[in-house]
Structure formats: C-alpha cells, structure tokens
C-alpha cells in the first residue's frame, strides 16, 4: 500500500502529540505543516524534520501534494479550514470541538458529504486503552445489559498553564472536556434521546463554567450521569483519567483511579490492570491521551486506505456535539432538552 501523505495545520500545544503520533502511524506521514505563527512553525518543523512549511493554509492547499489534512487549530478556524479542504477535495481530520456552533458543524458535514471527502473529528478519548477495555468487557456480556452508568472526570489539574485560551472563553468545561466524556457515554451506552444539565463556575479567575453535571437518557433505556469538574482537589490527582461505573442486568463494572477495571457478576469479581502504554515520546500523566492520539490517527490511516468510514466521522460527531449544545441549553433554561430537535 502507498504511504499516505498528510499536511498538518496548527503547530500549537496539542499538535506536538499529533506529530509524534504520525511518526508512529503505519501507512501515513506528514509532508507539510502550516501555522500562521512563524515561531511555532519553525519549532515543530525543526523538531520533526518537515521542510515544507507555510504560514498561509490557502497557499499550502494551492501547492497541494498531500492526500489528507490534519487540522489541529483551535475551534474558530475549523469551518474555514475544512471548507478549504472541501474546495481542494482533500480528506480532512478536524480537532474537537467540531465548530463554534452546531449549525457550523452541520454545514461542515454537508459540505464534505457533497464533495465526497471523508471528515473525521479527532475525538480521541474513546480510543484510550481503559475505555476500549470497558467496551470489550461490555461486549463480552460479562455484566449483561447495562441499565445505569456514570462517566466521571473530576480534577484540580491546572490546564490553563498549557492552554491559556481555556480561561478566556464564555464556555469552558463542557465544550473542552465534557465533549470527550459525553462521547464516551455515547460510545459505551449508545445514542442519547434527552438530557438535563447543571453548571457552576468555582474558579473566579476564569470566564466559563468549570463544573457540570449532566443526566442522560439513552435510546437503549439506560440512564447515565456525566459529571466533570476542574475544581476538585483530591489527595491523588486523577488527571486525565475518566472513571466509569456501569450496572447491568448480570453484574457491574467499575473503572477506578489507577486504571483498574473490576468486573463483578455471578462468578465473582475480576480485577484487571488496564493502564495505557507509556509510548517512548509520551510523558505522565498525559500518556493516556497521547496513546489515544496515536490510536485514532492509525484508525484514520487504516480507514482512508480501505475507503471505510471512521468511527468518529463528522456525521457521528454531530451526535456528540449536539449533546454539548443541549447541555448548555439545559443549564441555562433548567429544562430537559430533546436531542432529536437539535439534530434536525
Ligand atoms: N483531544 C485532546 O485531548 C486535546 C487536548 C488539548 C487540545 N485539544 C484541541 O486541540 C486544538 C488546538 O489546541 P491547542 O491547545 O494546541 O491550541 P494552541 O493555541 O496551542 O495551538 C493552535 C495553533 O494553531 C495556529 N492557528 C490558528 N488558526 C490558524 C490558521 N487559520 N492557520 C494556521 N494556523 C493557525 C495557532 O497559531 C497556534 O499555533 C483545540 O481545538 C483543542 O480543543 C485536544
């Protein structure tokens, strides 16, 4: 199989993980990079030995010579850059959050579909080793049919030092982190029919909400809670672990801090270490996320090579992004929000 040639736009904080990931991916590599900030461009270009460098994405698309684009910029540029990819018929990966609004995200999916180009949202959390282990345990039937779940991310980690823009937005934890937790809830318990949410801002130095509690009704009849916080100090900081509790008709499952998975059913309790691998370029505590960056990018290369749809395609991720919109709507109105009305 021919090696796929990629171009990456946005050489910021998180893109360094994506560049490392691409070096490890089988069947794809990055041949061109772009950042409007010349310093970031030089830093990442030198670190990863990429000679084709652009400060203007339009120029990079005009020059071409790549099979896909990986858009690793922050949210406000996503629609413009995906539309450039559409204009040049270049398959695109776009970082989360998908877009500033659901209307933008829908327009991006429609444009990619009309142009016949694949679009994947870089929604990497479901690719984490512990989350995959939960999915496998559920698929094995070990706890029967799940009827209740909790997906929890509670931390006091200072995310603002690496990503200062997170302190400035009107929206914070649901849009930035809860989006991953909501996607995990969908991945594990299936699509959602309605939700209600409550939010709080505890840290006075930031603009958006840093605590959210969301109650979800799933199509399957299961109920779940997604609770996220960046205002929670604990004796051992769990960042960036998502903890999961599932109760099923035949047993229960607990993914607890320290990457331990316990499955309990009529045969007793089994504990398994489901810790992520520490890749050579990774560092704790980010290694869980870093491994999933590699995994989702390998998935993209495999799917693009075989012309298959990715599991976090634009169309799929609209259903996660709708939950983000619904959570903000519900927190403001205190009403339950029906998801299908948002997806129309
Ligand atoms: N999945 C995860 O675990 C995870 C973690 C952190 C960040 N992210 C996401 O990654 C994205 C990037 O976040 P970050 O923290 O790296 O941001 P950042 O600000 O550090 O980097 C963004 C880079 O994009 C460049 N840029 C912006 N618009 C551009 C344009 N139109 N053309 C060329 N370059 C442009 C900026 O100059 C900057 O260097 C965000 O959407 C964020 O939500 C994901």
TrEMBL record:
UniProt GO molecular function: nucleotide binding
Entry-linked Pfam families: GFO_IDH_MocA (PF01408), GFO_IDH_MocA_C3 (PF22725)
Source species, domain of life: Bacteria
Domain Gfo/Idh/MocA-like oxidoreductase N-terminal: 5-120
InterPro entries assigned to the protein according to its UniProt record, in alphabetical order: Gfo/Idh/MocA-like_OxRdtase_N, Gfo/Idh/MocA_oxidoreduct, GFO_IDH_MocA-like_dom, NAD(P)-bd_dom_sf
Signal peptide: none
UniProt-listed SUPFAM superfamilies: Glyceraldehyde-3-phosphate dehydrogenase-like, C-terminal domain, NAD(P)-binding Rossmann-fold domains
Domain GFO/IDH/MocA-like oxidoreductase intervals: 131-254
Protein name (Swiss-Prot/TrEMBL): Putative dehydrogenase
């Amino acid at each position: 199989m021919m090696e796929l040639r990629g171009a990456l736009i946005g050489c910021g904080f998180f893109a360094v993980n994506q560049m490392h990931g691409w070096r490890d991916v089988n069947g794809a590599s990055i041949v061109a990079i772009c950042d409007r900030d010349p310093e970031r461009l030089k830093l990442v270009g030198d670190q990863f030995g990429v000679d084709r460098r652009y400060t203007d994405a339009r120029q990079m698309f005009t020059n071409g010579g790549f099979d896909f684009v990986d858009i690793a910029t922050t949210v406000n540029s996503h629609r413009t850059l995906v539309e450039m990819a559409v204009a040049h018929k270049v398959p695109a990966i776009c970082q989360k959050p998908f877009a500033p609004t659901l209307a933008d995200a829908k327009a991006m999916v429609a444009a990619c579909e009309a142009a016949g180009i694949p679009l994947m949202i870089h929604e990497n959390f479901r690719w984490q080793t512990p989350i995959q282990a939960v999915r496998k345990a559920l698929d094995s039937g070990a706890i029967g049919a799940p009827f209740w779940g909790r997906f929890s991310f509670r931390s006091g980690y200072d995310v603002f030092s690496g990503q200062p823009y997170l302190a400035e937005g009107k929206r914070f934890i649901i849009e930035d982190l809860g989006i991953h937790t909501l996607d995990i809830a969908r991945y594990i318990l299936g699509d959602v029919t309605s939700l209600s949410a409550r939010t709080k801002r505890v840290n006075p130095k930031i603009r958006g909400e840093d605590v959210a509690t969301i109650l979800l009704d799933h199509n399957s009849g299961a109920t779940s809670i997604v609770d996220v916080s960046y205002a929670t100090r604990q004796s051992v900081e769990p960042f960036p672990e998502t903890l999961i509790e599932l109760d099923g008709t035949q047993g229960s499952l607990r993914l607890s801090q320290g990457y331990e998975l316990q499955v309990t059913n009529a045969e007793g309790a089994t504990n398994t270490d489901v810790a992520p691998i520490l890749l050579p370029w990774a560092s704790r505590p980010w290694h869980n996320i870093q491994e999933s960056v590699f995994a989702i990018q390998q998935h993209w290369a495999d799917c693009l090579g075989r012309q298959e749809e990715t599991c976090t395609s634009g169309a799929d991720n609209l259903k996660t992004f709708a939950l983000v919109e619904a959570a903000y709507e519900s927190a403001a109105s205190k009403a339950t929000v029906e998801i299908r009305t948002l997806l129309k």
